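quick one before i forget lol
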Amino acid sequence: MDDTALIPKPSLSSRSIIEDQIAATETSKPTLFSMKAQMLEQGRTDTVLAATEDLSVRLKVYASGGENELHAHPDEDHVFVILQGSARFYGPDGETQDVLANQGFMMPKGMLYRFHATSTDECLVMLRVGTPNFQGQAKDDRIGADGKPLVGDTKANRTVPVVFKDGVYFGD
């Protein structure tokens, strides 16, 4: 059997994350998912693993040094569980929290934060669980520190092109 068939396809744009997450809600049966992911030289990926109308489960991969901009999700509580690597989370007043593999960090809805991958020899791999799913959130589900919409896959959110590492995977 082709092992690549077991690797969930990452959503490479903000629009595709929403579409993939909504599509995942179209079942009323239990969902088995794989947390296998291709590692990165540069950029970040976000893979929808499972979702209901009330909950989403995604796998996020950041290349070493990868980061995002200060933002909040006004209608979504979510948690990050570090599976590999490490990250530093920042609050709106510059406060920091380092999070290591096998630790988690919960973000209440409306909390401004950003993070970057601090591990230098491996990618940051995180499980992200949020509630509610996009159907239960406002149209502008992600806002910047200025209170204006901040689309996830933009230069303003420190997005860089994704470059995959050939043949290197999390979950092998």
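fyi The mean pLDDT is 90.
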